[in-house]
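ok here's the first one, seq then C-alpha cells
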Amino acid sequence: MTESLIGALFVFVLASFAGFEVINKVPPTLHTPLMSGANAISGIALIGALIVAGDRTLSISVILG
C-alpha cells in the first residue's frame, strides 16, 4: 500500500470514531436536523463527484459517462 492510501485510511478511521462519538452525544430531539444536514452534505459531495467524473480526461471518466 502506498503512503497516501495508508494516510487516507487513518483519517477515515479517526473521522468514523469522532463522528460516532458526536452522534451519540446528540439529544434525540436534534437527530432530525442533524440528519438533514448530513443529507445535504452528501448531496453536495455527489454533485462534486459527478463534476469530476465528467472531466473526460481520464478513460474511466469516459467509461462512466
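and now the second one, same deal
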Amino acid sequence: MHMKNIQFAVFNFATFISISAVNSQLIPFLNESGYTPAQKGWVLGFSALASLLFAAVIGWISDKTGKMKPMFIITTLLFMAAVFASFILTSDLWIKAICVILMFGIVKEVMSINETWVFQLKPKTFGKYHCFSAAGLVSGSLAAGFIYKQFNSIGLCILCLSASAISLLCGFFIKEKEAAEKGSISLASMKKLLMNKSYQRLLMILFLLMITGFADQFVVVDKLIALGGDRIAVSVKFAIQSLMEIPIYLFSAKLFKKFEPSRLLLVAALMTGVKFVAYGFCATPLWVLIVAALQLFTHPIIVLTSKLLIQEVTPKQLAASAQIVGFAIYFGISGFLTPVIGAWLVERFDFNITCWIFACIAIIPTWMIIKMRKSKGNQPA
C-alpha cells in the first residue's frame, strides 16, 4: 500500500477509535455518574444542539477558506480538552454535564469533518477508506469496554486522548485539496442552499432515519442494560454493528455501480423498521446482540448514500457546507430529540413498545424515498 494510503487508513482508524470509545461508553458513564433518565436525556439532547452550532461555524469557515485541515485540528484539540474535563477533571454533576455536552457535541463534528474531508480528497475510494473507520469503531468499542471495566474513566480518557493524538498527527500531514474553491460563500448562498427543495427533502429523510439510529444508540443500549447486559455487552453490541459495516464499505464501489443510491437508501429504510420490530421482541441480551447484526443493511448504506445524494443536489462551491451543515441538521437535531423523546416513551410505556414506535417512524422516510424515486423517474431526460 502506498504511504499516502497508509496515512489515510491510520487517520481514519485512530479518529474512529476515539469516537467509538466515547459513543459506546457514554450511557454507562452517565448512569454510573448518578444522572436520572430525564437528566441523561437532556444532557444528550443539548450536546446535539452544541453540535449543530459547531457545524454551522465549521461549515461556513471551511467553505470560506477552502480548507478543512485547520477545522479538524481545532475541533480535535477541543474534543481532547472536553474528554479530559469530562472523565477526570470534575465530579460535580452540573459542571460534568456541561463538559459532557461539549464532548459529545464536538465528537459528532470530529466524525463529520473526517468523513467530509476524506470524501473530498478520495471520493472514488471513500468506501474502502471507511473500512478502516469501521475497524476503528470495532477496536475502540471493545477496548473501551475492557479498559473502562479495569481502569474506570481514567483509562477511558487515556485511550481517547492517545487515539486523538495519532489522528491529529496524521491529519497535520494530510494535504488540502488543491482545487478547493473559496471566497464565494455568503449568507445569500447559504440561504439558497437551505431553500433548495431537493436538499430539504433529503435532509428530512436522513433526519427521520437518524432518529432511529440514535434510538439504537440510546434506547436499545438502555434496554440491553435493563435486560442484564453490562459494559462489556454494550461494547460487544457496538463492535458487532461496526464489524457488520465493513463489507458494505469494502464493496461500496461495486455496489454503487449496480444500484442507484436512492434504491439502496430505500433498502436501508425498510431494514431499519424491521430491526426495531425485532428489538421490541428481544427478551435477553443475546437476542439484542443478534438483532444488532442487521446494522449491515442500515447505517453504512445511509452514510454512503447521504454523501452521494447531497453531492448531487448542491453546487460545488458549497460542497463542504452542504455536507457539514446537512450532517448537523439531520444528525444534530435528531440527536437532540431522540434521547428526550426516547426517555419519555420508555417511562410512559416500556422498552418494547418504544422500539415498535421507532419502527413506525421508519415508515415515513420509506414512503418519502419511494416518492422521491418516482419524481426522479418522471423528470424529463
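notes on #2: The chain has a mean pLDDT of 85. The CA atoms of residues 125 and 253 lie 7 Å apart.
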